[in-house]
Amino acid sequence: MSDVPAFWHAALSDTLKRLGTTSDGLSVAEAAARLERDGPNQIAEAQRRHLVADLLRRLANPLVAILLVAAGIAGATGDLASFTIIVLVVLLSTVLDMVQEHRAEATAEALKRSIALRATVLRDGHPDDLPVSEIVAGDVVMLSAGDLVPADGLVLSANGAQLNEATLTGEPYPAEKHADPAASASEMTDAHNALFHGTSVIGGTATMLVVEIGRRTRFGAIAGSLATAQPPTAFERGIHKLGILILRMTLFLVLFVLLTHLALGRPPLQTFLFAMALAVGLTPELLPMIMTVSLARGAQRMAKSKVVVKRLSAIHDLGQMDILCTDKTGTLTEAKISLVGHPGIDGDDDDRVAELAAVNARFETGLKSPLDEALLLHMLDRPLEAWRKIDEKPFDFERRRVSVLAENANERIEIVKGAPEALLELCVHAQDRSGAIVSLDDGMRARLVQIQGDRAAQGLRLLAVAWKPAAGLDRIGSDCDENLIFVGYCVFVDPPKASATAAVARLEAAGIRIKVISGDAAPVVQHLVGALGLRVEGVLTGEDIAKLNDLALAARVEEIDLFARVTPDQKTRIVHALQARGHTVGFIGDGINDAPAIHAADVGLSVEGATDVAREAADMILLAPDLGVLAEGVAEGRRTYANIMKYIRMGTSSNFGNMLTMAVASLWLPFLPLTAVQVLLNNLIYDMSQIGIPFDNADAGDLDRPHGWDMPGLVRFTAIMGPLSSLFDIATFFLLSQVFHAGVAEFRAAWFVESMATQILVVFVIRTARPAWISRPHIVMVVTALTGLFVALLLVLLPWSGVLGFAMPSGTIFASIALLVLGYLLSSELLKRFALRDGRNPPQVVDGRLQT
Ligand SMILES: Nc1ncnc2c1ncn2[C@@H]1O[C@H](COP(=O)(O)OP(=O)(O)OP(=O)(O)O)[C@@H](O)[C@H]1O
Ligand SMILES: [Mg+2]
């Protein structure tokens, strides 16, 4: 990497001295000073772009730049009015755009900050829960299983600390960390005394001295080069394609208008300005702003219904999600686990079982599972003080058991507790109530399997407990799973969550199929879904999945709704298999074991109380561990999508219509239908009139099933509504020039009004697939749209309209225009039933289930 010696080579005492700190950490005042000096501990550059820089960036947009140059030419040739107005309009619309977008981004950022990761940091010698961004070099941070390492640093002390460093090193196996110096380690993979930002603690605890923060960490160094941006969603890709299409058409039209007018001998400068203004008018320049504002507004509303969005574009995915994978504990159950029994091999409660299990739970340093907590709670009145820990082999989700080496005055033994099926297999002896050790024959094995089956069928969760003598041993050996002596089971109850049934029903009614993916045993999961009354089909276990390759798995995942005893890796495989079948997949989970699947899903979901790793991997965080909250979120996602589509439909259809109109007008009219200034004003007012769209209400039809980017539907909409608007434009031309023989200024005023009214008012028609008078628009949208129309009328009616090149049209002209506009709105209302049909084959909902 670099010639500077790696930070883990130096002696700890030297590093402490260099950083001016001790193993008790910094004082609050010193930390504040360092935060001021070094800046926050974050990898991304400060998000807030500088306002002036942003303005310049927007003005550098080629279209705007051409306009400004054109304005300059107009000014130089003495057309001061055009110069001033063009510059004003350009500035106004740019600033408008920018302010809206900044405000939206600020809202989204604030929401995100509310769920920022926190860490336990020693300040003034006391542990304090602080946002990770406030960590400075010299701080001492306390880490435990499930935490993300917030910076680079040295291990001060560790207790069975195991780290997953795959993000940095690609190494899938956990790395053990301890405080001994590693002066000779040249690679980070060998630096067993160093902790790196972005890795996660999967077992044990550690205290860490922070050495490097933010971009100076190893992770920060590569994160900068590896663009961390998420790949665009299907919706964003669609929008991008549409943008390119519009750009091509605009270019074509502008060239066409330019060449025809020049060929017909019209004044070159004016024609050029007009063509440029047209180009500006045709670009959906407001689209990015409308998208950001809609998404931010969606995020704000979702926050009210307790879903905090970390990645804004995930709102699209949420609206499009048609499969939700969920883990069991906490989402479908109350996660209030208690021990209800500890039967020995005869089936009756045996205290030795509870005691050994509790010793194991007490000494295990990994993330305490709710099962461990239930065990410890049960033993509260009988402290395990006689026991001393010697060694441990921590829990992992592949082995599904924990081994602990411990002793009391009488014995030194290895105690194992874990998933019963596998653990029973490993036992060759059993111990009965009297303490006698008997051989575990087939008959007894069958009786024990029977106990497992009985309890699981009642929905009770089981852990098996076994042990073996370990006199003279100081470490757990590689033979730790051999020759075990079975003592009994711990039986837990985790009551089903009452609200889950209704929440699942709501999600299913919204066209989302639920799949339960659990690390628990199949009968337990089956009993639970039965108790909740969920309609789920089929079961696949981790063992089955291990035998399937990805292709075979993809063939099975559709019809199976229950997955039991799966490993974390298999959770991810299931998500990928569903994605391969074309589904938009959500995954909700809270554990270390869920994080990879959360990351792989289109919509990664986690809950407030989940482990850091799960929350970090998620796109959205539910503030309440309740699927009902998610159902609300889905509705918001779809509303956001529906509103963005309104803007896009308005834009594409009126653009396409305008293009046709302009092409016809250029050939036919002896003058430009509008001056450049008028085109720009038209565009500005139209833009402003649409600012209310993100606030609009959505119809039930927009919310009751998933929908994604639908290009064929959009093309059909444009092909129907575009020509319709041209038809009425051309009718207006005809009326004005052939019937009323309007003068140039009067013609332009009338056409300005007609074009504004049709463009602005049609939103009330196409915002809904239902009859326009049934579906109520949001008041903010009504007000912005009508204000736009009012301003347009003022520009023509006020005395100074002459400055803009308008002359007041006669009352008859106004009346005919009003009739034309009315006719346009009515025919749009009639035709929209053909234009607004979904372009894809609508998914069929049969018997409440979405058929795919
Ligand atoms: N602390 C523990 N000690 C021993 N075994 C454990 C412990 N925690 C979990 N196990 C075993 O590992 C299995 C898988 O763990 P867990 O149930 O947490 O997985 P999961 O996929 O998160 O399940 P869920 O869907 O319930 O959230 C458990 O069913 C249990 O048999
Ligand atoms: Mg879990």
UniProtKB/TrEMBL annotation:
List all membrane-crossing ranges: 55-74, 245-265, 271-296, 749-766, 778-800, 806-827
**If you read the UniProt record, what top EC class would you report for this enzyme, in one word?**
translocase
**Any single Gene Ontology cellular-component annotation:** plasma membrane
Q: Where is the Cation-transporting P-type ATPase N-terminal domain?
A: 6-79
Major subcellular site: membrane
Q: Which Pfam families match?
A: Cation_ATPase, Cation_ATPase_C, Cation_ATPase_N, E1-E2_ATPase
* Gene Ontology MF, one: ATP hydrolysis activity
Could you tell me which InterPro entries the record lists for this protein? ATPase_P-typ_cation-transptr_C, ATPase_P-typ_cation-transptr_N, ATPase_P-typ_cyto_dom_N, ATPase_P-typ_P_site, ATPase_P-typ_TM_dom_sf, ATPase_P-typ_transduc_dom_A_sf, ATPase_P-type_domA, HAD-like_sf
Enzyme Commission number(s) of this protein: 7.2.2.14
Q: Which PANTHER family match?
A: CALCIUM-TRANSPORTING ATPASE (PTHR42861)
The identity of this protein, by name, is Magnesium-transporting ATPase, P-type 1
